[in-house]
Amino acid sequence: MLRILFFFNLVFLLLSYSAQLNAQTNEDLEAALKNKNYPLAVDLYYKMGSDAWKRGDTKNSEELFQKGIRLSEDNKLSGQLQYGWYSLGLIQYNSNAYNDAIKSFEESLEYAKSNNDQESMARCQLYVGKSYFLRGRNRRSVNALEEALNIALKIKDLDLQKECYSWLSKSHKAMGNEEKAVQYDNSFTLINRDIERKTELSTMEEKISSVEKELESQEQTLESQEQTLESQLQALKSQEQTLKSKEQTLEKVSDSLKEIAKITKEQQLKIDLLNVEKELTDVTLKAKEAELENNKLIRNSLIFGLLLVGLLGAAIYKGYKDKMKASEEIHKKQMDIESSINYGLRIQQAMLPSKEKFEQLLPQSFVLFKPRNVVSGDFYWINELYNEKIAVAAVDCTGHGVPGAFMSMIGSNALDSIVNTYVDEPDKILHELHRRVLNALKQEETGNKDGMDMALCVIDTDRDQLYFSGAKNHLIYIKEGEVFQIRGDKHPIGGIRKVPASFTQHTIDLEGEMYFYMYSDGFVDQFGGPDNMKFMSKKFKTLIEKIHLLPMEEQKARLDEALATWKGDNKQTDDVLVIGFKLTV
């Protein structure tokens, strides 16, 4: 019973003390506002908001920080605005209010930029990226996290870099970019090891310092003992001189007594006793000298050991520094390459038609686009022509990765330019594209053989007809459950053909519900399956026939699933592109 009473009294006292502090803070705030000491008033608002957050009073905490922010804005206190918006963002982030948190962190980011506060800029971008990820907006999450990582690398903040790598890996994994996720996960592991190594080095330096201090202490102790022993040795030498003097006296007495030839037993005993004392003194003196020599040996051994440990530590430290420098250079080069490729990816993504544009021109459609590397040599293109016809193409450029991406940019820009000259027939579009690629790459002069394979459809809704031309790539369409394939011409776009390329135009009448599929060779050439063989065109057509009645997004998912199952643990052979659309007349 007494314990319960004591507990309640203690709680009452703590509550009373807290109430007194709050009352004092409110009084200080009123005084600051009255005296127009606005920086102090803002600090008091932030302090009260922090105290409310610690008590779990989230709503009151947000209100207090917002009051401080408004007062800072009215009086243009940029430093306090940066801190206030950041703190408010943390409260909203921890309360799962991610939309509000993003706005608060972005406000704080603007003030951090104006104050050139690099670390705060990185932390704001980090929390913006984390908030977007938790909202499921992975692409925006990646953009913000990459900005945070660039700043963290610039200011060499390893902890920030580590957290950026971790969240970038999660974001890319959520988007299905397993290769990028693994890259960032590896970077996370590498920097984590660097931190551990630096910690180990710091620990080793502390141990070496401790050993040095201990050896110095032991050396001082030995020097003190040596001085004591030397003092004792001097005393023993003094005793030895005294004994020698006594011995000489005894010898004189002995000679005198011999002369007298009458020595009593008592006198003889005294002489023997003095002789024994002298021998004992000699023995003690030799023992002290041996002990002194031994201590000198121990001291010299300890000094040699200290030097050896120091040299060994210096060698280890130099080796570690060299290794760290090489690791940092490799890491920097890797990040530079990755940054350049990521920038190329953003350019290529901007070049590709948006999903909204594709769905606006072809509402019943899908695009399965899976680059083998970060950037792709395949690309898809769609445009509305001057006479309201719709042109759509699936293009496979020479190579993949960065070289293929350069070709894809040339092809996309050339297609946009050609259709702006009022060319609307697919065979003429391919012919003009072939001519432009020859000229752009100066292939007749240089012998360059790069080019592209493509399938191009032009849809005329007024006449209910679809026109197709292909450069090595084909068109599959399904009408009333029957599968048809129109093969493209055998020559590609570009290359070193001296005779100008001519392409065949095929006309298909549109009736009822019809399904069309254009594709690059990445899907059919993928190795996998039980015998590690190519997927092949026959199996692809069978798969298309099996799924063509499903909704377009489900068709895309089935194709993606079939490719992943067939590929298994093999690497992706080439860029993969499949375009499917449904036309109803």
Topology of helices and strands:
Layout: H1 2-34, H2 38-54, H3 58-74, H4 78-94, H5 98-114, H6 118-134, H7 138-155, H8 158-174, H9 178-260, H10 265-351, H11 355-361, E1 365-370, E2 378-384, E3 390-397, H12 401-419, H13 426-440, H14 443-446, E4 451-460, E5 465-471, E6 475-479, E7 482-486, E8 493-494, E9 506-509, E10 513-519, E11 527-528, E12 533-534, H15 537-547, H16 552-567, E13 576-584
Antiparallel strand pairs: 1-13, 2-3, 3-4, 4-5, 4-8, 5-9, 6-7, 6-10, 10-13, 11-12
Please state the average pLDDT score.
81
Strand content range: 5-15%
The count of strands amounts to 13
From the spread of the alpha carbons, the general shape counts as elongated
Radius of gyration: 44 Å
**How far is the N terminus from the C terminus?**
88 Å
Order of helices and strands: HHHHHHHHHHHEEEHHHEEEEEEEEEHHE
Poorly predicted segments: 1-19
Report the helical percentage: 55-70%
What would you call the structural class? Answer: alpha+beta
Number of helices: 16
The largest β sheet comes out as: 6 strands, antiparallel
Could you explain the architecture of this structure?
This protein has 585 residues and is an alpha+beta fold. It contains 16 helices and 13 strands. The strands form three sheets. Strands 2, 3, 4, 5, 8 and 9 form a six-stranded antiparallel beta sheet that branches. The protein has a five-stranded antiparallel beta sheet with strand order 1-13-10-6-7, with helices on one face. The chain is elongated, with a radius of gyration of 44 Å. The N terminus is likely disordered. This is SpoIIE family protein phosphatase. InterPro entries: Apc5_dom, Bact_Sigma-Reg, PPM-type-like_dom_sf, PPM-type_phosphatase-like_dom, TPR-like_helical_dom_sf, TPR_rpt.
